[in-house]
Amino acid sequence: MSQPVIADNQPKAVTLQKGKKYAFCACGHSQTQPFCDGSHKGTGFGPKVFEAEQDGEAFLCQCKQTSNAPYCDGTHQQFSQAQVGQKAPDPGPDKQGPGL
Ligand code: FES
């Protein structure tokens, strides 16, 4: 599978409701980051549906390279502003994809 697009090089702070299900964008193409808007069609990716474990603010990944999807794990720090909107570089044989 190819790499997702880096939607941004920083996480998005969102307010989640405990027990509610959300569709996290895994392809990076959605215009409603960090959530799915259906833009993944034909990319080989699908959204990651997750249930919020608690009420409150959460930082969701927009670089699509976190190992803790849908949550930011700091991986975005390796991407520059120039890489936003581009496919993420191949992670090599040790790591495949955004951990989805
Ligand atoms: S935005 Fe922080 S790891 Fe992706």
Automatic annotation (TrEMBL):
Signal peptide: none annotated. Pfam families: zf-CDGSH. Residues 78-100 are annotated as: Disordered. Residues 9-46, 47-82 form the Iron-binding zinc finger CDGSH type domain. SMART domains: ZnF_CDGSH. Keywords: 2Fe-2S, Iron, Iron-sulfur, Metal-binding. It comes from the Bacteria. The keyword Iron applies. This is CDGSH iron-sulfur domain-containing protein.
